[in-house]
Amino acid sequence: MTDDLAWVATAMCALLRRLMVRWTMASSLPIGNNRTIEKDISPAKKKILYCPMTDEEGEAYKTYWAKNSRVMTLDRSEPGNPKYTWNMEKLRKLVMGSSWLAFIALEKNVIAKSIPKALNALRRNILMPKFLSALEAVSDERAVCLCRAERSRNRRSHAT
Predict the structure, then answer these.
(1) Is 90 exposed, middle or buried (0-12, 13-18, 19+ CB in 10 A)?
(2) Beta partners for residue 75, in sequence order
(3) Which residue in 15, 19, 94, 144 has the fewest CB atoms around it within 10 Å?
(4) For each of the chain's 160 residues, which pLDDT tens digit applies?
(5) Which residues form the signal peptide (predicted)?
(6) Which residues contact 10 (CB under 8 A, 6 or more apart)?
(7) Which helix or strand (DSSP H or E) is residue 63 part of?
(8) Cα separations in angstroms, 139 against 13, 26, 126, 131, 143
(9) Strands (E), the chain
């Protein structure tokens, strides 16, 4: 691993440590192994992790899932050879949104139109601070919303 890649990996670990994994699903193989998906192991090795959610978080997630869950599209560009392909934009949203609820709010900031420019900004230590401050702003906003919802629930329960 080059020094740049090691630095990027360390920076990403620092970023992801701040996020809570709510739910994720993935096919996986150990790095450096000669085994292949479908030949040596089943096409999907699933491990689902659940975390309790507030009612508001659950509703936000269900709405997001309903809008982005259809990730396969039928490609009829070759006559006589229809095939299903991934809708990469929806797949990206689905993977990011299902893995980290905070990414639902941040998804517009996560899209990189130019990967080389994004990597250059990462190397110059510009990208991560901006992303972390955006993440903290979303977390603060979410905390305020949850506090308001809790106060609202308490008022209703005291009124009855």
Answers:
(1) middle
(2) 83
(3) 144
(4) 566 666 766 666 665 555 544 444 444 555 666 766 556 655 544 555 556 667 877 787 788 778 877 777 888 888 888 887 777 777 777 666 655 555 565 555 555 666 677 777 777 888 777 777 766 666 555 544 544 555 566 566 656 5
(5) 1-26
(6) none
(7) helix 55-68
(8) 18, 26, 20, 12, 6
(9) 72-75, 83-86
For 154, the token pair is 């308490």
pTM, entire model: 0.34
What the block records as the tokens of 119 is 């990597």
If we measure between CA atoms, which residue out of 22, 9, 66 comes closest to residue 1?
Answer: 9
Q: Say which amino acid occupies 150.
A: E
Read off the tokens for 85.
């392909």
